[in-house]
Design brief:
Layout (H helix, E strand, L loop, with lengths): L3 E5 L3 H13 L2 E5 L11 E4 L2 E4 L4 E3 L6 H8 L11 E7 L2 E6 L2 H11 L4 H19 L13 H10 L15 H7 L6 H14 L9 H13 L1 E3 L5 H13 L3 E3 L4 E7 L2 E6 L4 E4 L1 E4 L6 H4 L2 H4 L4 H7 L5 E10 L10 E5 L11 E6 L12 E10 L7 H22 L7 E7 L1 H8 L30 E3 L9 H17 L6
Parallel strand pairs: 1-2, 1-13, 2-9, 6-15, 13-19
Antiparallel strand pairs: 3-4, 5-8, 6-7, 10-11, 11-12, 14-17, 14-18, 15-16, 16-17
Helix pairs in contact: 1-9, 1-15, 3-4, 4-8, 6-8
């Protein structure tokens, strides 16, 4: 218990590690570069409007969900009612609703594609069965890829005979299973699935790991939640728990250098302050590591982590809007995925996710006003020069606003405030080089045993967050934080 821990970055992954270890009784210091907690799940204020930085759909909060188990261990219950209708999925040819109830959800698909009833029911039956099997591993939560005898032993102890059924799917893509069920040419159905996957796995059915895709398509049925105010509430509670258990939290501290000597790590912030610890946890985009570590240290990082340092990911354009909902025919729905054209256009404003506050959520805006956070995937090469930057901002945001106006006549006239968050803004406010967000696409070649471990390869240095197994999203980054906390403490902590 006399081991000290320094956590760099107060996103959900870093906060999970820090709060768990402080609750366990360890000496924990958490440094955060900004004035807000939560990273991509944080918030910012503009006059009387509060905007969640990123998506506001709460996940993993159901009984025995990953996040619920963390809060249970912290003795910070966070009861919420699950959404029965999780979101609307708007496509040019049809609008679907994602229902929490599995049978209701499948029946909707069957009604829309009556001639494919047998194939659709067989496909979803397989998806739900495979996902249920995988979720039995989310109880013990073994590390992937395992890299020590203890991790291998825990993985083997977590396996049951039923997991043998997963082996035939291990190296398959979702596209292969769609073909197997005769659904790969059903383009509208496939586009609907791709729209779900691009948000959770950062890729579509063509390349997505089938095992992770089955979990991603099923997990909303376990429970999805509207959190009053936004996901930042989770971050604030973990930050308070850290302080209550003797931990130290310092905001506006940007770490600029990491050095190790005699098995002790020293971090230096932008003010020249130094912090020593036995263990350092980096909850920062891995693309920052070349600025923090010496070349000799970079060469000792594990190969998947080294390769990831030079691998680009998606970036994003976000729109933050306040709307007078009294000027609309009806209040905006809480969550919508909108595809403005058919085909594979899942980026650059042709597809986007739109989350809105409840009209009575006074944490977000005055009564009668809804704040809206919109995000679309985009590639950094469209923003890497000044002339491209402004042209892309205008083109992509215009595409989004026109698509919403077509769906909700009068939307643009109801706008009270609008601000864009382009890639450089994400880089400035969240410290993400080039505005990279969401982690790596969860393809067969990058997922599961091919993922990046939380063990960096340097003794006493760990990584967590959306680039680390199991990937992006609240559940994914919390899981990586749990793995780090377990490794440092030597205890299981959550059950």
């Amino acid at each position: 218990m006399d081991q000290s821990v320094l956590v760099v970055g107060a996103g959900i992954g870093g906060l999970t590690t820090a709060s768990l270890l402080a609750k366990h009784g360890m000496d924990v210091t958490l440094l955060e570069a900004s004035s807000e907690l939560g990273g991509c799940a944080g918030k910012y204020q503009r006059n009387e409007y509060l905007f969640p930085v990123g998506a506001t759909l709460g996940m993993g909060l159901e009984e025995n969900g990953i996040v619920e188990r963390v809060f249970r261990y912290l003795e910070k219950p966070f009861p919420l009612e699950p959404l029965e209708t999780v979101m609307e999925m708007v496509h040019p040819e049809a609008t679907f609703k994602f229902f929490k109830d599995r049978e209701k959800h499948v029946s909707q698909m069957v009604r829309r594609f009556t001639e494919y009833e047998r194939q659709i029911r067989a496909f979803y039956s397989e998806i739900f069965s495979v996902a249920a099997n995988i979720r039995t591993l989310m109880g013990p939560l073994p590390v992937l890829p395992p890299s020590t005898p203890k991790e291998w032993s825990f993985l083997m102890a977590s396996l049951h005979p039923s997991h043998v059924k997963l082996l035939p799917f291990f190296n398959q893509t979702l596209e292969q299973r769609l073909k197997r069920h005769g659904l790969d040419q059903l383009q509208l159905f496939r586009q609907m699935i791709d729209a779900l996957l691009i948000d959770s796995l950062q890729t579509g059915s063509k390349d997505a790991s089938y095992l992770l895709a089955s979990l991603a398509l099923d997990i909303y049925h376990e429970g999805a939640y509207y959190i009053p105010g936004g996901l930042y509430q989770l971050a604030e509670i973990m930050g308070k728990s850290l302080a209550e258990n003797g931990g130290t939290l310092k905001k506006r501290r940007t770490v600029v250098k990491l050095q190790q000597q005699d098995r002790k790590w020293t971090a230096t912030d932008q003010r020249g302050n130094q912090y020593q610890a036995d263990h350092v946890v980096l909850n920062v985009p891995i693309h920052q590591l070349p600025k923090l570590l010496a070349p000799s240290q970079l060469n000792k990082l594990k190969k998947p982590l080294r390769e990831g340092l030079a691998t680009p990911t998606w970036t994003t354009l976000s729109l933050y809007i306040a709307v007078d909902s009294s000027k609309l025919k009806a209040p905006l729905p809480l969550f919508r995925q909108i595809a403005s054209k058919s085909g594979e256009g899942l980026a650059e404003g042709d597809y986007f996710f739109m989350s809105s506050s409840r009209p009575n959520d006074l944490l977000r805006a005055p009564a009668g006003i809804q704040t809206v956070t919109i995000s679309t995937h985009t590639r950094f090469e469209n923003w890497d020069a000044k002339d491209k930057y402004e042209a892309s901002r205008e083109a992509v945001s215009g595409r989004i606003l026109r698509a919403i106006e077509k769906l909700i006549p009068g939307f643009q006239e109801a706008i009270l405030y609008l601000e864009t968050g382009a890639p450089k803004a994400w880089e400035h406010y969240t410290g993400r080089p080039n505005g990279y967000v969401g982690g790596f696409p969860q393809t067969v070649n990058a997922a599961l045993f091919n993922a990046i471990s939380h063990r960096s390869g340097l003794p006493g240095l760990y990584v967590c967050g959306d680039h680390i197994f199991p990937g992006a999203g609240t559940i994914g980054v919390a899981t990586s934080g749990i793995h780090v906390a377990r490794t440092i403490s030597g205890k299981r902590l959550i059950y």
